Inverse folding.
């Protein structure tokens, strides 16, 4: 019997929900990846749905067209439908059509619909107006000239009573004027007189004010523009505006305690709010303030202690971290008990925040190291990821280095950790540290058991590291040598080649015949000294080494750390190539230049080349002639190699030289010039100028350069060159020879050992004021660039909002004199930077020279 026809659920479209689900699924497929053919098919299928009157389905159609981003040919198909919807009586259609058209259209069509967009900006319906304004923000990136013509309409919309419209209008108007500082400042000044009613727009205005204050550079309270307005916003009825103003005040450059007080007061009120988001915002801001102004936050300590038991663990963690930064010595034990209760309930990223705060507290109150070290060792044994465990290990290592009394207990905590450590990297790092510090303790023998357990129980990488650590104990502690020899002999039967090879090497070096003799200086230097060649250079040299009767010579490895190549010019085919170009790799750099210079008779008597700089551009990109210069430094001379490229096809340059004016470099005397005979189009060439300077001295000076040549016309079609030429000149940028040009960047793998090995014989220490700086990182970078030395152990990176920092530098000064520098920076409340400079070198005069460079820089 035939069944009656029943409409299935899948075919229902009573509310359009089932039909709308199809484009929704298709949109998910787009993010998973559609090829061009599939995307085109989906696009044409979706355009048929313009006939639907269902509002929800139509909105999904608009969204699909935006996601598909049709090509120029396909855009034409939907343009008429979208333009029709843009003039529809239905506001939802108008708003979405504007958004889609502005997303998929090009500049040509945009000019046609510009009139409609201007009308939409001032439309009475806030949804339509916001759609036009947001589209303007996006279009400003691709068609700025058109959008800037809307300024009057946008200016009018800034006065809108609709909160979102005013917010979007302010954002667009500021972007239109942001490149004109005076216009942007005038806009902000007008709006601070009470024209902004939307809390969202007011938050945006506060951010623009903060930007103006930063750019003004004024750090005195009376000189800050708009500071009174920020302080007035602290009494606004909207909480978001109050918080934004308070945060802006706390982030002012060189903010004073007097300026902070009103902001801290409102943030303290937020700490007791019933809204978790306000409590979190307040405590996070106060945590940042505590890094630079801990005393200003101490009044909030009682309120923050109540947040330790907050249900939101993020709030509790930040409260603890802030209290650790602002608390006093008497409150440490109480805080540690409170922290222990909730550490297991929070995520690793928040645990790391607590660990960092505890490390800072331990360095601040050294007498409390026992309780803080015990806490770190306890959480080290708990479950956690790699970054969390690494943060704890790093903290313990820093405490051991900074607080001598904490060494033995700290090393024992680390030994207990590696008994059950699942991370190979951390185990090897701890074993390396144990080898350096363990032999210096009162009873080194108690660490041997922990180290040898690693040889028995761990993987090959850790076993090899443990063998090296055992050898270090044998080298430093003669009484342990017999036991170390026994253990190393057992390692000779290990299954891994690296472990066996290390054991064999160390037995031979230490004298494995059971005779207890004092370890030689060369052996200690090998075990504890630093490798004086960069690992990348060593790797490159080993790769190109061809096995032969001659052994590999480590002295042949270049010692200079090559900087990254300069960014290529826009016209990449016009860049100098060959020997005139920057060397392609570290192994070819100085050697290639040295071969080039020694082949030129005028420079062959200058001796061994000490350093060649990276190329310095003397012309801008896309100019008629591309010129850069390489500075070659010898002991008593300096040679400028000018790499030139002719970028004009219709010209041939002959007798090319650079006229160098050394009037601002009085200690330099020009001794030789080597001109370039011919410089055809797009064929790089070099011309040289050599100067004599005082022997072995870091002489500095400034040189002005003029490119002089004879230009001859060339017929591009035939390549024929006219016989007659015209003498011409081309002004180049000035060139400076700085103190950094006399320093080779050569790193050391273990700075502390290198520092102790160098000894204090030629050490010189002094303090300097570097004046006001935007941040500590800026001061660190400036000093590194001034000295031209290699940062060691990642100390060139300054943690954000840090008030103090230590930077370690290494290098070789002209004359092949090794230099080590320890820089200690401090930042006070007025943003003034003080620096303590300690220099150790192999010559007293070099230590004095480094200080002279800093003093005059």
């Amino acid at each position: 019997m035939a069944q009656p026809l029943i409409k299935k659920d899948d075919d229902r479209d009573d509310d359009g929900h089932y039909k709308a689900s199809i484009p929704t699924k298709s949109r998910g497929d787009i993010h998973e990846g559609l090829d061009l053919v599939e995307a085109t098919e989906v696009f044409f299928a979706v355009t048929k749905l313009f006939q639907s009157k269902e509002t929800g389905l139509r909105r999904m159609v608009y969204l699909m067209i935006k996601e598909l981003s049709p090509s120029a040919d396909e855009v034409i198909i939907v343009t008429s439908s979208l333009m029709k919807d843009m003039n529809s009586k239905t506001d939802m259609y108008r708003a979405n059509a504007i958004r889609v058209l502005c997303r998929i259209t090009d500049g040509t069509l945009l000019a046609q619909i510009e009139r409609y967009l201007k009308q939409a900006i001032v439309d009475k319906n806030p949804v339509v107006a916001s759609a036009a304004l947001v589209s303007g923000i996006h279009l400003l990136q691709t068609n700025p000239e058109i959008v800037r013509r809307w300024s009057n309409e946008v200016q009018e919309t800034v006065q809108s009573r609709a909160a979102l419209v005013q917010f979007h209008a302010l954002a667009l108007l500021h972007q239109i004027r942001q490149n004109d500082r005076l216009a942007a400042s005038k806009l902000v000044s007008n709006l601070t007189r009470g024209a902004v009613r939307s809390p969202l727009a007011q938050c945006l205005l506060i951010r623009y004010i903060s930007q103006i204050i930063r750019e003004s550079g004024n750090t005195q309270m009376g000189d800050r523009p708009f500071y009174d307005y920020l302080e007035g916003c602290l009494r606004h009825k909207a909480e978001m505006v109050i918080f934004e103003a308070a945060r802006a005040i706390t982030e002012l450059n060189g903010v004073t305690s007097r300026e902070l007080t009103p902001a801290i007061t409102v943030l303290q009120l937020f700490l007791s709010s019933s809204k978790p988001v306000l409590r979190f915002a307040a405590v996070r801001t106060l945590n940042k303030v505590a890094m630079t102004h801990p005393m200003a936050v101490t009044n909030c300590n009682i309120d923050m202690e109540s947040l330790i038991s907050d249900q939101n663990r993020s709030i509790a963690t930040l409260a603890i971290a802030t209290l650790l930064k602002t608390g006093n010595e008497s409150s440490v034990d109480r805080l540690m008990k409170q922290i222990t209760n909730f550490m297991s309930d929070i995520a690793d990223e928040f645990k790391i925040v607590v660990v960092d705060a505890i490390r800072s507290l331990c360095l601040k109150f050294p007498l409390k190291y026992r309780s803080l070290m015990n806490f770190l060792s306890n959480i080290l044994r708990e479950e956690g990821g790699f970054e969390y465990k690494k943060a704890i290990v790093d903290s313990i290592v820093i405490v051991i280095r900074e607080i001598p009394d904490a060494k033995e207990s700290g090393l024992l905590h680390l030994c207990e950790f590696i008994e059950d450590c699942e991370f190979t990297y951390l185990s090897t790092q701890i074993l390396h540290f144990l080898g350096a510090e363990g032999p210096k303790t009162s009873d080194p023998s108690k660490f041997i058991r922990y180290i040898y357990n690693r040889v028995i129980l761990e993987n090959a990488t850790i076993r090899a590291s443990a063998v090296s650590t055992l050898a270090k104990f044998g080298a430093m502690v003669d009484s342990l040598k017999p036991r170390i020899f026994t253990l190393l002999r057992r390692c000779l039967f290990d299954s891994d080649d690296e472990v066996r090879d290390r054991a064999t090497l160390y037995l031979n070096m230490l004298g494995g015949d059971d005779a207890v003799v004092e370890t030689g200086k060369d052996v200690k230097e090998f075990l504890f000294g630093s490798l004086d060649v960069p690992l990348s250079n060593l790797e490159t040299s080993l790769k190109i080494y061809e096995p032969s009767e001659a052994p590999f010579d480590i002295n042949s490895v270049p010692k200079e750390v090559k900087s990254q190549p300069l960014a290529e010019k826009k016209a990449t085919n016009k860049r100098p190539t060959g020997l005139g170009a920057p060397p392609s790799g570290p192994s070819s750099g100085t050697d290639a230049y040295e071969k080039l210079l020694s082949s030129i008779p005028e420079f062959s008597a200058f001796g061994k080349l000490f350093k060649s700089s990276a190329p310095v551009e003397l012309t801008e990109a896309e100019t008629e002639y591309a010129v850069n210069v390489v500075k070659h430094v010898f002991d008593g001379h300096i040679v400028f190699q000018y790499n030139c490229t002719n970028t004009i096809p219709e010209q041939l340059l002959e007798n090319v030289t650079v006229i160098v004016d050394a009037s601002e470099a009085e200690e330099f005397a020009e001794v030789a010039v080597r001109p370039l005979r011919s410089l055809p189009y797009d064929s790089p060439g070099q011309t040289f100028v050599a100067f004599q300077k005082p022997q072995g001295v870091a002489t500095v000076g400034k040189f002005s350069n003029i490119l002089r040549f004879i230009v001859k016309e060339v017929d591009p079609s035939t390549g024929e060159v006219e016989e007659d030429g015209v003498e011409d000149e081309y002004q180049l940028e000035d060139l400076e020879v700085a103190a950094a040009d006399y320093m080779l960047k050569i790193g050391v793998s273990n700075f502390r050992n290198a520092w102790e090995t160098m000894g204090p014989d030629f050490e010189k220490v002094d303090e300097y004021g570097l004046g006001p700086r935007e941040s500590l990182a800026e001061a660190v970078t400036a000093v590194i660039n001034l000295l031209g030395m290699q940062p060691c152990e990642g100390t060139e990176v300054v943690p954000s909002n840090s008030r103090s920092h230590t930077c370690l530098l290494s290098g070789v000064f002209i004359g092949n004199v090794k230099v080590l520098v320890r820089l200690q920076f401090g930042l006070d409340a007025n943003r003034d930077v003080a620096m303590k400079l300690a220099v150790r070198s192999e010559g007293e005069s070099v230590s004095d020279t480094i200080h002279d460079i800093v003093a005059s820089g």
Notes: Confidence is low (pLDDT under 50) at residues 1-20, 25-32, 563-588. The chain has 35 helices and 17 strands. The CA atoms of residues 180 and 648 lie 36 Å apart.
